[in-house]
Amino acid sequence: MLRKKILNLPDYHLYDGSIPIVDFDKLYPYEEAKTYVAACIKPLGKEYETKMNTALAEGWIDVYETPGKRSGAYSSNVYGVHPYMLMNYNETLDQVFTLAHELGHTIHTILASENQPFATHDYTIFVAEVASTLNERLLLDYMLSKTKDPKERIALLQQAISNITGTFYFQTMLADFEWQVHQLVEQGQPITSDKLKEITAQLDSTYYGDAVAVDELYHYVWSRIPHFYRTPFYVYQYATCFASSARRRSSRAGPRALGPPAWGACNPRGAKSPPPRAPGESCPATSCPPAACPTGSLRSAPASRSPCRAAAATRSWACT
Ligand SMILES: [Zn+2]
Questions:
Q1: Which DSSP letter does residue 305 get?
Q2: Distance between CA 81 and CA 53 in Å, rounded?
Q3: What is the pLDDT of residue 246?
Q4: How much distance in Å is there from the Cα of 188 to the middle of ligand 1?
Q5: How far is the CA of 95 from the centre of ligand 1 (A)?
Q6: Please, what is the average pLDDT of the chain?
Q7: Ligand 1 centre and the CA of 7: distance in Å?
Q8: Burial degree of 297 (CB within 10 A; 0-12, 13-18, 19+)
Q9: In whole angstroms, what is the distance from residue 171 CA to residue 207 CA?
Q10: pLDDT tens across 265-305, in order?
């Protein structure tokens, strides 16, 4: 409702979420973006910082757009070597966050490869986006602490809010949709376009209430979500990962005391999985992210950028 008021709109539609509320067009040259990303992850410890500096300096990243290059961004591993990254860096604020995000995947992959044999080095989707979204949160904290430009501050907060609505709220709604549809399949019910539209309309009403004007075309949103067709029961993991990284960042000791991550050693499928815990025993934050912990409780894309997806065939973690 705040956006509706600031934008002076009679009705607020979902597509209005793409309208910037300040005129902010600052560009961030790649060399400057690298310094932000390298600085923001310092709370993760010296080892992480060293790996990050190596990843930024060693030519692992295909940075800029070129003719014929595919769109989006991803990090793709070569076991025994190191990950390579594809970017289409265009100097926008969004791309600075994409750089931090994909480097989160890259360093996670390095840690997993160093701590696991080939057979178990690959990690699950359930933990993948914890590493990437945590880096985005650290970048947000860092840039908010440095900026003296009120417009940049608003743009940063807008980016953070879009992340909450796009990566947590919207993905939860999609997961709800997916669960309902699969239930129909299990009951032997017919799945038609009209039925999918009906479920989406009901979810729109439940999740947005009267805060957002109804647009019938949005009831076909399921038709553009590739995960439903290629990687079922994927989307809920955006929300769980997002919540996990939020919890880790806001730990009682604060982000300055996050300590070194142990994602590689904590791979729940790997040889160095954490030992079983007693019922109710919490997961120590310094040794295992909440999402990877068998008993740890979970308490916790921006509109302009679609969320990440795992390209299972190539084992890369991609934003497209
Ligand atoms: Zn990602």
A1: S
A2: 16
A3: 81
A4: 35
A5: 13
A6: 82
A7: 31
A8: exposed
A9: 11
A10: 444 444 444 444 444 444 333 333 323 222 222 222 333 33
Distance 130 CA to ligand 1 centre (A): 9
Give Rg (Cα) of the chain.
20
Other Cβ atoms less than 10 A from the Cβ of 212: the count is: 18
Distance from Cα 183 to the centre of ligand 1, integer Å: 28
- Spot the catalytic one: 47, 49, 102, 178: 102
- Strand partners of residue 318: 74, 309
Residues in the chain: 320
Residue 102 known to be catalytic: yes
Q: Which residues does the chain have with pLDDT short of 50?
A: 252-253, 255-257, 265-320
- DSSP track, 8-74: T-SS--GGGGGS-SS-------HHHHHHHHHHHTGGG-HHHHHHHHHHHHTT-EE-S--TT--SSEE
Residue whose tokens read 């940063």: 156
91 burial via Cβ count (<10 Å: 0-12, 13-18, 19+): middle
Quick one: tokens of 179? 């669960």
Of the candidates 264, 317, 309, the one whose C-alpha atom is nearest the C-alpha of residue 75 is 317
Task: Give the pLDDT score at 157.
Answer: 94
Find out whether 112 and 264 touch, Cβ atoms under 8 Å. yes
Separation of CA 101 and ligand 1 centre (Å): 6
Question: In which element (H, E) is residue 156 found?
Answer: helix 150-163
Instruction: Report residue 53 as tokens.
Output: 């500096």
Ordered structural domains, the chain, with CATH: 11-320 (1.10.1370.30)
CA 100 to ligand 1 center in whole angstroms? 10
Question: Residue 246: in which H helix or E strand, if any?
Answer: helix 236-249
